[in-house]
Amino acid sequence: SCDPRRFTSFASAPDYCVAKGMEIYGNEYAIQFPRHAWPAGRDRKLSPIHDRIKSLGARFDAYNGWERATWYAQA
Q1: Measured in whole angstroms, how far is the alpha carbon of residue 74 from the centre of its chain?
Q2: Is 72 helix (H, G, I), strand (E, B) or coil?
Q3: How far apart (Å, rounded) are the C-alpha atoms in residues 22 and 15?
Q4: What is the reported pLDDT for 34?
Q5: pLDDT number for residue 11
Q6: Which of 56, 60, 58, 26 lies closest to 43, judged by CA?
Q7: C-alpha span between 75 and 69 (Å, rounded)
Q8: How far apart are CA 36 and CA 13, in angstroms?
Q9: Closest Cα partner for 46 from 34, 31, 63, 25?
Q10: How high is the mean pLDDT in each 10-residue block of the chain (75 residues)?
Q11: What is the value of pTM for the model shown?
């Protein structure tokens, strides 16, 4: 079973639900690759230093709505 209370408010926005639903449905039978970043519904929660670390070469993944730097490109 799935308890909807485990999701925070960003996931209940109608535009987010539609975008993620279309993305997941459209990729149901696609080959899944590790570290593939799903593009729909990104940039929901950004930290105050997001632009700064992005300018330093950060690459982001979404974790519970937050865009978090997972690695940095070579400068």
Answers
A1: 23
A2: strand
A3: 11
A4: 82
A5: 80
A6: 60
A7: 15
A8: 24
A9: 63
A10: 74 85 90 85 92 94 89 84
A11: 0.70
